[in-house]
Structure formats: structure tokens, C-alpha cells
Amino acid sequence: MGIEAVESCGGGVNWALVDRCRGFEDVRVEFSGDGIMKLTICRPWKRNAFRPKTLRELEQAFLFIRDDPNTRVVIMTGEGTEAFCSGGDQSIRGDGGYVGEDGVPRLEVLDLHILMRRLPKPVIAMVAGYAIGGGHILHMVCDLTIAAENARFGQTGPKVGSFDGGYGSSYMSRIIGQKRAREFWFLCRQYNAEEAFQMGLVNKVVRLEELEAETVRWCREIMEKSPTAIACLKAALNADCDGQAGLSQLAGEATRLFYQSKEGQEGRDAFLERRKPDFAPYARF
Ligand SMILES: CC(C)(COP(=O)(O)OP(=O)(O)OC[C@H]1O[C@@H](n2cnc3c(N)ncnc32)[C@H](O)[C@@H]1OP(=O)(O)O)[C@@H](O)C(=O)NCCC(=O)NCCSC(=O)c1cc(O)c2ccccc2c1O
Predict the structure, then answer these.
(1) Does residue 100 line the site of ligand 1, with CB under 6 A?
(2) Is the predicted pLDDT of residue 7 greater than 70, yes or no?
(3) Is 90 exposed, middle or buried (0-12, 13-18, 19+ CB in 10 A)?
(4) Which one of 47, 108, 156, 191 would you pick to mutate in the ligand 1 pocket, going by the greatest count of ligand atoms within 8 A of its CB?
């Protein structure tokens, strides 16, 4: 995959920068060497608020990861200990969305959510500090969340003139229930890590110094399991709230398995060999 420049962080992993994402400005993409890809939003002076460029780089990284057989699990995090992500960068919010270098206003984070949901590999949010606004939604869209004790969670939309009626609302209510979701959005309060854990928003709370090591432990535990089973389970759990798109993702996993079977390959081979397919050996049991 073209990795270089080993640098050492916490968690006992020698993270290596991924060459093909080396030109990125807002996102650092690193590989553990044994299956874990770490994506770090690097705008700490803005509490890791995202701008269109940040989202583009995350999208490119996820597309790369989707096709990369070496990557089994993804960690998504923010630079530093102050914030995971504080949502959309309000300083470049125009009248119709967040304005990038091309001058076009967009709400592109919604596309990123879909990419993350469709990724057939687990994404774990590693949260230190604030996960606020669109940053809170990003952690919710991740499959699992490990939080440091200093983590703080909340929505700000109705305070800053915004709202996410997509995963930010409907999926939140699936996770924490309707009453709590309404509380989150209508009051715009902040919740600490323990409160988030009690609500089921977070899988584990650890001391800040332990955050990366614990997250890596979860990744490695997942990597001991069948990747196909994990991909099918993620698709099945998504299908519960993703409608036709969710069913299509789940069915795509079935088609992928079918393509790998002798029965599926007999259909292809018969067509190419201009003969009648012989499916007799593959009767259902
Ligand atoms: C995150 C905070 C609670 C942190 O508070 P703290 O006191 O620790 O730090 P400061 O407030 O002093 O911030 C330090 C520094 O960072 C700048 N900053 C922080 N967040 C942002 C931000 N989101 N955008 C721009 N800049 C930010 C801050 O201005 C300071 O800079 P200085 O130059 O003054 O040093 C607190 O910062 C906070 O509440 N931040 C705002 C959180 C927020 O409201 N986020 C936006 C919500 S809306 C959203 O994210 C969103 C995005 C989308 O793309 C959508 C798409 C489609 C539908 C809905 C969307 C949506 O709702």
C-alpha cells in the first residue's frame, strides 16, 4: 500500500503514514502494520471542526480503505486531547452550506456518513474531549465508540441555526431512544463520558492515557474474528434503518459470497463457453 515514515504514538503501535494519503492537509492516515488504519482529523486549533477539504480527504481515505485488503478495522479520531471533532467549521459556513475552495456550498458530511455506513469494515471512534454538533454525529455513525474520561458529547444545531435530520436524528433515536434524542436536540446540553456510556452512546470509558491502547485492543479483538461475518453483521445491523439502501448493502454481501461459489461461477463459465449451465450439483439443502 506504500507506507513509509514510521512514527510512534501511544497504544504500543508504530503507526506508519500511508504514502498515498501523504498529500492530505486536514487528515492524517496511518497504518498499524497489522490491519488497523487510523484517520486523524488534524485541525486542533478549531477543535477539529471539519471543512469541505477535511471531508473530501476522509472520503478518499474511506474509498481507499474499502478496497484495501490489508485494512480490517478503522479508528477515527481527532488530533490532541481537547476534541474529537466540533462539527462543521462555522467560519466557512455560507448561506447554503459549507463553502470550499471551489466556492460551492455543500453539506457533504451527509455523503461521508453513507460511505462510513457502507464500509464493510468496522469503524471505531476514539473520542477525547469534545464530540459536538456534526462531530457528535460522526462518532455516532462509527460502529463503536471508545471514550476518554474527558469526553463531552452534545448537539448544538438549534443554537447555531442548523440540524441534522438524517442519521443525526433518526439513528440517534435508535441508539438512545426517542425521549433522550429529543432532549439532546431540543436542549443542546453537553453530557460527560459516563452519562454517554449510561445512554448507550459509548461502548467503553477509559482514562485518557489508556485511550489509544484500549481502542487498539478492541481492534485486535475484532481482527481475530471472521471478516466476512463482521461485514455481513454490519450490513444486517445497518439494514434495520437504512431502507432499500441497507437491504442492497446486505444483499451485496450475499452476492459477493455467491460469486465465490462453484454454483455462481458455473453460470459465468457456461456463458463464456457458450454452453448450457449445469446447476444440478448445487441443489438447495
Ligand atoms: C467545541 C466547543 C464546545 C469547545 O469549547 P472550548 O471552550 O474548549 O473552545 P473554544 O470555543 O474557545 O474553541 C477554540 C477555537 O476553536 C474554534 N472552533 C471551535 N469549534 C468550531 C467550529 N465548529 N467551527 C469553527 N471554529 C470552531 C473557536 O472559534 C476557537 O477559535 P479561536 O480563534 O477563537 O481561538 C466549542 O468550540 C463549540 O461549541 N464549538 C461549536 C460547535 C458547533 O456548533 N458546531 C457546529 C454544529 S452544526 C454542524 O456541525 C453541521 C455540519 C454539517 O456539515 C451539517 C450538514 C448537514 C446537516 C447538518 C449539519 C450540521 O449541523
Answers:
(1) no
(2) no
(3) middle
(4) 47
User: Residue 47: pLDDT band by 50, 70, 90 thresholds?
Assistant: very high
The helix or strand, by DSSP H or E, that contains position 211, with its residue range, turns out to be helix 211-223
Q: Does the CB atom of residue 109 touch ligand 1 within 6 A?
A: yes
Cα 63 to chain centroid, rounded:
12
Handedness of CA 242, 174, 41, 109 (dihedral sign): positive
Residue 171 lies in domain: 3-223
Separation of 197 CA from ligand 1 center, angstroms? 23
What pLDDT, on a 0 to 100 scale, did the predictor assign at position 9?
44
Here the ipTM equals 0.99
CB neighbour list of residue 177: distance below 8 Å, 6 or more residues apart:
none
With respect to residue 285, please indicate whether it lies within any of the assigned structural domains. no
Residues 238 and 98 in one domain: no
| Coil, strand or helix at 146 | strand
CATH number of the domain where residue 267 is located: 1.10.12.10
Q: Is residue 280 part of a domain?
A: no
Residues 236 and 145 in one domain: no
CA of 143 to the centre of ligand 1 (A): 24
- Distance, in Å, from the CA atom of 34 to the CA atom of 56, rounded to the nearest integer, reads 26
Cell of 135: 462531530
Q: Which residues pair with 18 in a beta bridge?
A: 3
How many angstroms separate the alpha carbon of residue 157 from the centre of ligand 1? Answer: 11
Judgement on whether residues 251 and 156 belong to the same structural domain of the protein: no
* Beta-carbon count within 10 A of 54 CB: 27
Instruction: Choose the residue to mutate in 41, 59, 84, 86 for probing ligand 1, maximizing ligand atoms within 8 Å of C-beta.
Output: 86
